[in-house]
Design a protein that fits this description.
336 residues; 3 domains; two-stranded antiparallel sheet; elongated
Length: 336
């Protein structure tokens, strides 16, 4: 399988382009499962559409091999075709091409562009280190720190870390680091090339940095310092809000049912007698209003919405018996 570079497949020698040309890797300093990786500036065979040889014109800023950026799926290829129409095809989920001569591949038909050409949210792949290599190290920055301050902190454990390599692994080092950011240390046995695991770790660091953009340095320090308390508080609040929501939903359903019953009572009484003056109507309506008054208090008026304590709902809302039946026969509603 291909190495994952920030959610895109790593391009290697023999990969095709969208026009059907074959990519030719030229550097042996960085191998991926025995294949040379493709870098910015590497050539391609003649493009089947325009007839001109192409050049890989794009690579990842933070993944360098022998001084040149490593190419990934969707990297731009410059040839005689219109700009942007020819790109490297190296899908993350596909295996690298089998070993055969690039000359035999020059006549292959145009390949379909991979969907990974378009950026997607970062997701950490479950790929372990290659056999015989060490897992790349990282350091979670505990507070606002400059690059120099991080180096001083790490020097207590290892004073031999190569500064130039750390700068390549952490390309935003000049901007400093917020609390919670990932500082990539890399594989101590690997001096020059960018390994698969280091690429994955750099992608995770980039994703973390983007997530922290909404916080300033002071806010990030606060979150990092009190992360345990905040996590516990959010967990308890989530449970309480869930219980409160269920109680409020149930109370609103009861209020809705009572209001519907009052509406049906008025309609039924008026259709039966042509007026709303019967003793049975007043008795049943009184019972429903008392029921509504209790439901409103119990459900949310006195609690969740904190709207105050109302001894008599009808009086507090300035509702009178006359206003409820005024002109009912003309418009069917109160006050009309």
């Amino acid at each position: 399988m291909r190495a994952n570079l920030a959610g895109k497949g790593q391009a290697v020698d023999g990969d095709l382009t969208t026009t059907g040309a074959v990519c030719i890797a030229t550097g042996a300093g960085y191998l991926d499962e025995g294949r040379m990786v493709l870098r910015e500036g590497d050539p391609t065979t003649a493009c089947p559409l325009c007839g001109q040889e192409g050049v890989v014109a794009e690579g990842l800023e933070w993944c360098i091999s022998d001084g040149r950026r490593v190419a990934m799926d969707g990297a731009l290829v410059a040839c005689g075709c219109s700009p942007g129409s020819n790109r490297v095809v190296a899908p993350l989920g596909d295996a690298p091409p089998s070993r055969h001569s690039t000359a035999g591949l020059a006549t292959v038909g145009a390949a379909e562009p991979s969907a990974a050409v378009y950026p997607k949210p970062f997701s950490q792949p479950l790929i372990g280190a290659l056999p015989g290599t060490l897992e790349p190290g990282f350091y979670v920055v505990p507070r606002r720190m400059s690059f120099a301050q991080v180096l001083l902190e790490l020097a207590e454990h290892d004073a031999t870390l190569p500064i130039s390599r750390l700068q390549r692994l952490n390309p935003t080092f000049e901007q400093g680091f917020k609390a919670g950011e990932i500082f990539v240390l890399g594989n101590p046995d690997n001096v020059d090339a960018c390994t698969r695991e280091e690429g994955q770790l750099m992608a995770a660091a980039q994703h973390t940095r983007r997530a922290l953009e909404v916080l300033d340095f002071a806010e990030a320090d606060f979150m990092m310092q009190h992360q345990a308390e905040i996590a516990g508080l959010l967990s308890d609040a989530s449970q309480s809000m869930g219980v409160g929501k269920d109680m409020l939903d149930q109370g609103l359903k009861q209020v809705g049912n009572t209001l519907t019953s009052i509406e049906h009572l008025h309609q039924r009484e008026f259709m039966r007698h042509g007026h709303l003056n019967s003793p049975s109507f007043f008795a049943e309506r009184r019972q429903l209003l008392q029921q509504l008054d209790g439901q409103l208090k119990a459900a949310f008026l006195n609690k969740q919405l904190n709207l105050g304590n109302y001894e008599r709902l009808k009086k507090s809302l300035n509702i009178s018996t006359k206003s409820l039946v005024h002109h009912w026969s003309k418009a069917g509603g109160p006050g009309q």
